[in-house]
Amino acid sequence: MEKETTTNNSMAIVAYLTLIGWIIAIVVNNDKKDPFVSFHIRQMLGIMLLAFAISLVIQLTGVGILSILHLGTFVLWILGIMSAFKGTTDPVPLVGVQFQDWFKAIS
């Protein structure tokens, strides 16, 4: 989408670095409410929940071939962190727009 001119690129990147990084990004962004960082926090929340849902389905069904779907979440994670690194608010393919809509309360 459009290039953000922000000094919070690093905090957006931190949001993609594990659950702890995501929590740190939320805490730091809680006061500033930077829309760029909030965008990436919502993207990562969606990616984490998607990965959790895939893991749950694999465990409940016992169909190990579904593990290939984790590769998809890895690709989404890479695309998200690249967007944060570039300073853009590009939603991840297929589900990124829904993540923004579903988690719009996180700002």
**Roughly how many Å is the radius of gyration?**
14 Å
Percent range of helical residues: over 70%
**E-strand count:** 0
Total number of domains: 1
Shape: elongated
Q: Which residue ranges are poorly predicted, with pLDDT under 50 across at least 5 consecutive positions?
A: none
Mean pLDDT: 86
Strand count, sense and barrel status of the largest sheet are:
none
Structural class: mainly alpha
Distance between the first and last residues' Cα: 19 Å
Helix segment count? 5
Instruction: Estimate what percentage of residues fall within beta strands.
Output: under 5%
State the order of secondary-structure elements, H for helix, E for strand: HHHHH
Describe the protein.
This protein has 107 residues and is an all-alpha fold. The protein has one domain (9-102). It is built from five helices and no strands. Helix 1 crosses helix 2 (18-32), helix 1 runs antiparallel to helix 4 and helix 2 runs antiparallel to helix 3. It is elongated and about 45 Å long. InterPro entries: MamF_MmsF. This is Import component protein. The chain crosses the membrane at residues 12-29, 41-58, 64-85.
Secondary structure elements and their pairing?
Layout: H1 9-15, H2 18-32, H3 35-61, H4 68-86, H5 96-102
Helix pairs in contact: 1-2, 1-3, 1-4, 2-3, 3-4
Structure described in brief:
The chain is mostly helical and 107 residues long. It is built from five helices and no strands.
